[in-house]
Design goal:
The complex is a heterodimer of chains A (104) and B (232).
Chain A lengths: L1 E8 L9 E8 L1 E5 L14 E5 L6 E9 L6 E11 L5 E12 L4
Antiparallel strand pairs in A: 1-2, 1-6, 3-4, 6-7
Chain B lengths: L1 H11 L6 H11 L8 H16 L4 H11 L5 H7 L6 H4 L7 E3 L11 E3 L6 H4 L6 E2 L5 E2 L4 H9 L8 H5 L12 H7 E12 L15 E12 L9
Parallel strand pairs in B: 1-2
Antiparallel strand pairs in B: 3-4, 5-6
Classes of the chains: A mainly beta (104), B alpha+beta (232).
Chain lengths: 104, 232
């Protein structure tokens, strides 16, 4: 499960230069063998390192972003994706908000 | 399973492919193989390798087609695994008997017997958790039952696997079904804009005399399911 948080400068025309902030959190399970080495094979995995989100748990993540002093309009987007395997992921929930700053 | 046979058994364990070894996978992934002879189980193992290695060729496709007949079907749960959670009490499953939680007779298509076990989480936990093979080997495809029992139930959770994963009947929606994933995960986002005090950041800005456009984003993610996320 992956949480992505981005902030984009909407006044910037070139998409490649729009990104002002980007961060990510990942929840997953690491399988390890008896020598504490990370493994993928079910026959190799004997224990786990549990980096998942536990049942009945609400987790809080906080992101602080400081932009440059000439930034006027920022679009902040939060997406939560679930990966059924390493290759296939779907966006589960998302939220987006545009902020306008008054420059003095 | 291909990797288990060609890497696990062959290279790492230096052990021949036998029914006992392949059942470490197939007891859950194709439980009907439990009734196969040693020779047939060996052939099925070879077919798994062919289906993977020769994928896209006639030989590979033929092997795939044959293997598809062994998929987890009605009998896997309603006969083969039905009595296993309480084997001492129920004994082996009866030949041709279809066990169900309410004992409905399926329009006389087959003999039926009521067995409440099929509606219990412990029934699903036979495969959806740490698996212990007949020789004691621990196979860990997934660990879901651990977090169900030791975290969810321990905190007072009372739903069973079937309560959520049989909402669409025998489609068993789970991680492959986006609606089910959406139902199990909550997301709340709070975005707070503010102007940061000029001259107080290490980060260089174009005009250090000006208020710095800033924001705090608080994200709350809730696991509403009865098990860890992700898991299988």
């Amino acid at each position: 499960m992956v949480l992505d948080v981005t902030a984009k400068n909407l006044d910037e025309k070139e998409p490649a230069k729009q990104l002002l902030f980007s961060d990510q959190r990942i929840w997953w399970e690491i399988g390890k063998d008896l020598h504490n080495r990370m493994r993928y094979g079910a026959w190799q995995i004997k224990e786990i390192v549990d980096l998942t989100l536990q049942p009945m748990e609400t987790i809080k993540e906080r992101f602080l972003m400081n932009f440059d002093t000439d930034i006027e309009t920022v679009e902040i987007e939060v997406t939560l994706s679930y990966f059924i395997n390493g290759k296939k992921g779907d966006m589960v929930h998302s939220a987006k908000k545009t902020l306008a700053y008054e420059l003095d | 399973m291909h990797n288990f046979i060609t890497i696990g058994l062959k290279k790492e364990w230096n052990t021949p492919l036998t029914k006992a070894q392949i059942m470490k996978c197939l007891d859950c992934h194709a439980p009907t193989v439990a009734y196969a002879t040693e020779e047939l189980a060996f052939e099925i193992g070879k077919m798994i390798v062919t289906a993977y290695k020769m994928d896209g060729t006639k030989e590979g496709n033929d092997a795939k087609k044959e293997l598809a007949r062994l998929n987890v079907g009605c009998l896997a749960c309603h006969n083969i695994k039905a009595t296993a959670v309480a084997r001492g009490l129920h004994g082996d499953p009866g030949p041709g008997m279809i066990y169900g939680p309410n004992g409905e007779d399926g329009d006389n298509a087959h003999p039926s017997e009521e067995l409440v076990d099929l509606s219990r989480a412990s029934f699903c936990m036979q495969c959806h958790g740490k698996y212990k093979a007949a020789d004691g080997e621990i196979i860990q495809c997934n660990t879901l039952s651990g977090s169900f029992q030791n975290t969810y139930v321990a905190q007072g959770g009372s739903q069973s696997c079937q309560d959520c994963h049989m909402k669409k009947g025998h489609l068993f929606p789970g991680g492959h079904d986006l609606d089910t994933v959406k139902e199990g995960l909550g997301l709340q986002v709070e975005i707070v804009p503010y102007g940061h005090l000029p001259g107080t950041l290490e980060k260089k800005v174009k005009d250090p005399q000006k208020w710095i456009p800033s924001a705090v984003v608080n994200v709350f993610i809730e696991n509403k399911t009865g098990h860890r996320i992700p898991d299988g």
